[in-house]
Specification:
nine-stranded antiparallel β-sheet, eight-stranded mixed β-sheet, 42% strand
Length: 478
Amino acid sequence: MNPARRNPRSSGLRTAAASAAAVALAATGLAALPSSASAAADGIVVQYRTSASGASADQSEPWLKVRNAGSASVPLSGVKVRYYFKADSPSAAYRFACSWAVKGCANITGTFGTLANPTATADRYLEIGFTAGAGSLAPGADTGDMQLRFHQSSWASLVQSDDYSFGPDRTAYGDWSKVTAHVSGATVWGEAPGGNGPTDPPDPTDPPGDAPTLFDDFDYSSHTDPRIGANGWSVRSNSGGPGVPGATWDPANVTFASQSGNSVMNLETSTAGTGASTEHTEILTKSMKFRNGTYASRVKFSDAPRSGPDGDRIVQTFFTINDLTAPMADDYAEYDFEYLPNGGWGEPANILYTTSWETYRPDPWEAVNAHSEVRASYAGWHDLVVTIDDHRITYYVDGQHFGTHGAAYLPERPMSINFNQWLIDLQGQPSTTPRAYDQQVDYVLHVKDQVLTPAQVNAMVGAYRGAGTSFEDTVPAG
């Protein structure tokens, strides 16, 4: 049973197929996975101009356009663009803003990251992403103006002249290779500052070594398909937390359908504004046998209900967990991707959390964990990867680093793999009109004791699909 989650911020403490895949990997590379960089994505071009050309300024103003020079349409939700700069001090914090954009500022996200290999002209980057509302770029089309800016949180003047991506003479749009574009972890335009390319090191085209693996394409007929249980999954029906008191967990709300040639699992959560009318949904492995290694899934989050009024404080997840043997037991472990499209836990709007748990006590509430978050819409399909080795837990979203948590949060015991969708409470939407929310899952992959890059994950999934393998589990029990 999952612990009753509470906002860590408000608590003050939130703080025979493996070889077939390798053969298919050589034959299919990344092309077999729908989310992988395609020939069309390889035609992505980034254009840049600055609206603040001084060596120093109150704020940096990188204006950008993304152009599709390829031969097929490219969904913008899979494209990330990075602008690299040198922080004004090690402790400097920055804020992103969009002044105006043809695609709409509401469809553009901006987050900041730290480079693994700082250089004289870059130790940070601003990463621009797109929501599903930004649509796709047809061949020959571009995004139009994206008038972007960022500044120090203190509004102290910042120095631009030592920023890698800054071009003081670029007062009109033109191709600019010092800004990079990425699709599913692969760089398709530009050159990052030295030593910071996603293939430096390791080379993501290198196939992972032979290791025990779980792969499931969720190619089932319904929640009663006997292969679900035979393949090690349990569709939850027992009552209890997390979520709205009095809610049920209905196995019938786990369904399967074909999309773009792949089988997709759908988790539906519904309510009519009361505990008795609320139905949560969860599927989990029956065995707790997963510990170190790589966990990956492609998940579709949704910001709005499929039907009925919006506003419920819903949680959409992919996570691993074991049981809490006693309050504050030090052998508890849990690693979460949790998306809150309508906020909750004290957050007013959409937010994506990744959280690594050491332990907790349900009553009175106390938790020991670490988290990373981005306050932005994540509606649409996303590649989620978390790796666990003997030193750290590292999270990736769409091939980009999302957060790293230290050795204090490493697992002491094996865990299960879970997906669920549930309501924190009924306060976000008081209506008694029925509504239903969907979370979809394309696949799940676990590779025991191996840390893979997101590109290696994509290649491995493409290899399974290229070989026609919809399920494999060679991870030993216990």
